Known about the structure:
Blueprint: H1 26-31, H2 67-71, H3 84-113, E1 131-138, H4 144-153, H5 160-168, E2 179-185, H6 189-197, E3 202-203, E4 206-208, H7 215-226, H8 230-236, H9 240-243, E5 261-263, H10 270-287, H11 295-308, H12 315-327, H13 335-342, H14 351-355, H15 378-385, E6 394-399, E7 404-408, H16 411-427
Antiparallel strand pairs: 1-2, 2-3, 4-5, 6-7
Amino acid sequence: MTNPRRPARARSGEEEVQGHEEDLDPLHQLDDPAHEGSLYGDPNTEDAYDVDEDGYDVRELDYATDDDDVMSGGQRDGRTRAKGPVRAVRRLLVLLVALGLVAVAAFAAVSVLKPMFGGLGGSNDFAGPGSGSVQVVVNPGDTGRNIGTTLQSAGVVKSAKAFSDAAASNRAAAGIQPGSYTLPKEMRAADAVALLADPKNRSVPRVTIREGLWRTEVFAELAKQTGLPVTDYEAAAKDGTALGLPAGANGNIEGYLFPATYEFPPKSTAPEQLRAMVAKSTAELTGLGIPLDQVERTMIVASIVEAEGRREEDRPKIARVIENRLAAPMRLQLDSTVSYGVQKRALTTTDAERAAVNDYNTYARDGLPLGPIGNPGASAIEAATNPAPGTWLYFVAVNPSTGETKFATTDAEHQQNVKEFQAWCAANPGQC
């Protein structure tokens, strides 16, 4: 049956199909009283269609008055303009715009989520073996997931998940250390784990600070090896509390910059580096069981032992001489303290320097210096804690080149040893 919402095509009088009288043009049926109300519903019900003379349901049409007729004051001539097609076009445009927005949103979602779920649509790992190279940094405290994310961002592995899975399957992954690593791009996650777990592939800036340096010398060495300016270390040293200095140090970092080889994290700051060195010193003191109220004194004695004793076997004896002279009491009269007081490195000192009045010159002051005169290592700290038994009151290095040191109980014995030292100086001009 022809759609009542659309007019049937006009048929010619000869175009009649036998046996299908029910398919007559509905417009013809409207003229037949027998069909009244049969095609478009009962006019007395809500289902009835309001049909115009062309066979359209007027509820589906909007009429627009011809502007010319209105302006001329004429009567509406019955011409109509259907808005149905216009609405259809509008609906199509709206649909197309909506589909476009959905497509854009879908693309954005895929771009954001694809790195997170790269393995859902296929392999989340590269086939390897990789090519080129890129440097990545593993920071202290990084988890397997952190490392995987770093590697994915650098293009080393295809996904962080692939790396995490590979690390979980390799026990050696637990040994991955902080540092810099040079790795190929687009490599298998399992191969990345193996390379990171091999310490031979680890590159980390190592800073070595030797025993006995003054803090100014330590700062200069740190700056040389790390590239940070000396002023950064000088500024950081002013905040002893932030660096973790013991209360007895009174904010003075001298003595607490433990000499050792350090592996500072990449981009570590001067305060972080100094804090690590101080922590190592305090750990050494704690390990030796030194009471907090004895920490500063121990470090002062240890710094003198470090400066005066070159050979390890001599250091406990030097510590004993210091303790015996303090107990006598006798002034220590040590050239190492004089040199520190005037901040001049020298094997011997002048009369003027020994006469200088400052907090470190033990020729001019009783007892110990005000603070440490350098940064002692573990051997000197242990010697200061456990002096060798003996009655010595004097010592002198008779051969500075080898560090040979002789000890004496009386001044007469000591003077004989001093002559040996003077003979060495005579044989080595410019060394004393």
